[in-house]
Amino acid sequence: MNVTGHTRRPASIRDVATAAGVSYQTVSRVINGHPSVKPTTRDRVLAAIDELGFRRNATALALASGRTRAVTVLTANTTHYGYASILRGVEEAARAASYAVGIGVLESADETAVAAEVQRAADAGGGLIVIAYDPAGVAALGAVPAELPVVGVVETPASPPGGDRPWVWADDREAAYQATRHLLALGHETVHYVAIPSSTRRTSARTAGWRQALREAGAPEPRPVQSSWGPAGGHAAGLRLAKDPAVTAILCGNDDLALGVLRALHESGRSVPGEVSVAGFDDAPHSAYLTPSLTTVRLDFTGLGRAAFALLHGVLEEAVQVAPHPVSEPELVVRESSGPPPGGVQRRPPA
Amino acid sequence: MNVTGHTRRPASIRDVATAAGVSYQTVSRVINGHPSVKPTTRDRVLAAIDELGFRRNATALALASGRTRAVTVLTANTTHYGYASILRGVEEAARAASYAVGIGVLESADETAVAAEVQRAADAGGGLIVIAYDPAGVAALGAVPAELPVVGVVETPASPPGGDRPWVWADDREAAYQATRHLLALGHETVHYVAIPSSTRRTSARTAGWRQALREAGAPEPRPVQSSWGPAGGHAAGLRLAKDPAVTAILCGNDDLALGVLRALHESGRSVPGEVSVAGFDDAPHSAYLTPSLTTVRLDFTGLGRAAFALLHGVLEEAVQVAPHPVSEPELVVRESSGPPPGGVQRRPPA
DNA sequence: CTGAAAGCGCTTACAG
DNA sequence: CTGAAAGCGCTTACAG
């Protein structure tokens, strides 16, 4: 029951055709920018479109033409800073290209659950962007049927999990390398690492960059502390590391982890950066306002999302295929949480 | 050009019909759970569906039936904790109901820009959920054509901006009231308020709850400090408030704002909670791990998102219309950032 | 319980 | 430059 009495059915191309005194195929030509339409005819059609408030039915377009101007982002997380920012970037670029953007959340890395989500995303039509920063995402990227257009946002360019699919990445390895070198240059004998969950069983790019910096400096290589994504995990890891008086520098897999580590050090009575230096990863919005403010590496997640969409767009519209490429250089942001070790420079002279 | 030689066209109901030796209408009946199908026929169809890996084409379903199992969330923001959590709740509930979820970002509150985004969302088919916590969202909710199914997530139940549309809300007023009372009970003479941008020109629910608590206690009512959504705004506001030695308690419109205030107080050499107490709003994931940890009011944003979807689902499927209702009681979480004022209880005895 | 027809709103060849 | 036909993959009455 409709209160207003009757629901106006939206105008179709036939309605427009009638109003303009042409056939509906001509209307189709006009809305598709087909060149062979007489200017006066075009103007009449355009006027009718305007008058009737006609909007082309996206569903009918999709069914008839076979292509859906839509992209679905498949992700294990929507609230963490990095993930949310990638989604944001995709949405921006998609909006600019008049694409609809859908979102599917991967609740677990379980094979059948992942397959179901991929199917759901495929049912939406259009292309897929899979954020493969974690086991669920990696599984999803691997489970996408070969005939579906997909772009992966992956952790490392070394081993694209999706086979020959296009992908984008931020240079996590370089970022971790830079942050570790920064801490070593301050005079720390070595740098401990609190790791986010790895996307695969292999060593993550962040871990690899950290290790490389240690090796090049001839510094001891402590075991990375495996943790979670949030502050709680960082807190637990920080409590453990705080017990060891030899620990003077800690690199964290992301800023949330670092926030938890900062809290743990405080609770353990170890000052930052006086006794221990801490560095994060991502440069989340709050990191500059923590006490102490957090030294971190800024990553361009939004740019990453935009690049992923651009790549997918190219595939979908069969334009020139863009080669996979990193979006932006990571940028070290030095703040209050990092400084020289307590006893001054403890590090062995460089080899 | 396809590397695998040929692209398998997905199976249609006609393919299934042929394989099962029935007409395609019968297949339609089976996939729609229509009762009048002979069990043996049903089994044959089901077997064919399984064998061919048939999935019903969502686009064709939408075009033929007129209903699209989809919801688009319209929001001004996707990265802030509250917004992201609402989106998360919608996605959870939508996934459970096999609905696709789309997202549209309102880049500005400008009338034509908002209208364009609403149109885009409408083009997707299905229902709309508009997060109307800010001017852009409120404008969008108001711009949704009457014939479109929509649910608003609004700030206050007092004046639903969408007219007679269904809506959900969290009880922000009650939450602010509780937090303010907590601070007053500790003995503060009054509580200052750093406000998030209001969704309308009228006083926000949070502001109203804060003011009500002050009035009831006969406490002075300082002017609220208008701020932004992020830590930077809180920092600026905090710097200003820190200059006034009479300020001993600050309530913030959200936890990010509180984080900035905390930083500003630190920079100004005023200890928390020794000299100034601070309380936030939302209980974001990091708030428990700040130093000092943040007293705040927990709001069930995810539940709000789920409730919004449930309401929309009811409208779309013409089930019983659920009355608008608050989702969950706000919960005060007392942590380290709030305590008695410096000189002990300064507050006048209650009237 | 099951089949044949018409139609959802478009596009894509095919005529002229 | 423009119109008439067929079809995208389904659903919805209408027959039987």
Automatic annotation (TrEMBL), chains A, B:
Q: Which stretches are tagged as biased composition: Pro residues?
A: 339-351
Write out the ranges of the annotated region (Disordered).
326-351
Q: Which Pfam families match?
A: LacI, Peripla_BP_3
Which controlled-vocabulary keywords does the entry list? Answer: DNA-binding, Transcription, Transcription regulation
* Residue span, HTH lacI-type domain: 11-65
Q: What's an example of a GO molecular-function annotation for this chain?
A: DNA binding
Q: Which domain of life is it from?
A: Bacteria
Cite the PANTHER family for this sequence.
Answer: HTH-TYPE TRANSCRIPTIONAL REGULATOR GALS, LACI-RELATED TRANSCRIPTIONAL REPRESSOR
Q: What is this protein called?
A: LacI family DNA-binding transcriptional regulator
Q: What is the species listed in this Swiss-Prot or TrEMBL entry?
A: Streptomyces lanatus
